[in-house]
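Input (Diguanylate cyclase (GGDEF domain)):
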Amino acid sequence: MGQMMPRPDLELERLVAVRSVVAFKNAETAELKAISQLAQGVFGVARAAVHILDEDWLHIAEQAGLQFQECPRDIAICDRVVVTQNILTVTDLSAHPEFGSLPYVKGAPDLRSYAGAPIELEPGLVVGTFCLLDPHVREYTAAEVDNLQYFATLAGALLRLQKANFTMSLAARELRDAAMTDPLTGFYNRKALDAIVDLELGAALCEKDTFGVLYLDLDGFKTINDTLGHAAGDRVLVEASTRIRDAVREDDVVVRMGGDEFAIFVPRPDSSTLINGLAEKLLHAFRQPFHVEGESVLARLSIGGAIAPQAGADRATLLRSVDEALYQAKKSGRDRFVSRAL
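Output:
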């Protein structure tokens, strides 16, 4: 074979549809698996599969029986089905002038018969095939060909349903993220706090590991807001979020608690040294002035910290320990870090 057939006029639109399917093809698909297994049994073949063909590659959405690897489109028999948008049956692949030289026909698994029907995601947009393969020469009856098209139609309906579910899942995730994200800084907001702590603390306790928390309070922020206005205050918060983002690790999670307060959650810190080092890094960063409205202003940090399970093995106890540490930092003169059970 070695080269693909000329592409149909709607190839660009088809590829857009294909990419929407390939985006979720690795998800568990019990329904596609079920109809693949059913087809294998109904037709009595070694393999039944749902194939998706993009510009140059054959993707396997599901397969039953013989397990194949994905392959280049130019050696895929299914390419003919996609391009012609018609069912194709081949009684003996080894005797076929185009397919007889394919590696899986000349060599293992020595395939002989093929039947494939086009799968449409939308009318006229064939994204792949429902195909049958077997190492024995076989001629398909007209009734079997009709049944194969029914399986392809079912596969198309399942792909449409899966695409719709995937799209709705993304939309729901975006809405959830928007509801839990602070629009000014891009950090999580206060609504996300409990879920983050419960998840990370639970994981740490299960793994007999540790979980660090820092509370940050921006000293002097109220004065900036009162004297320069809320717009200037917002610019300070945006710059503050950049300084925090530059200081934390990739796995650390930052929450804007509200106003000028932030929390940093540090999963599995190696030791208290890491928490202390992060706090010192933040203190140093916030000792540099902010430049707003043509003025240079200071907004330094008070930081309280704690590590679970030493400072608390549940959310309420842990966060109370961090809050008490922050209170001590502010009471002791600000621009400092106070820790509990580090």
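The mean pLDDT is 89.
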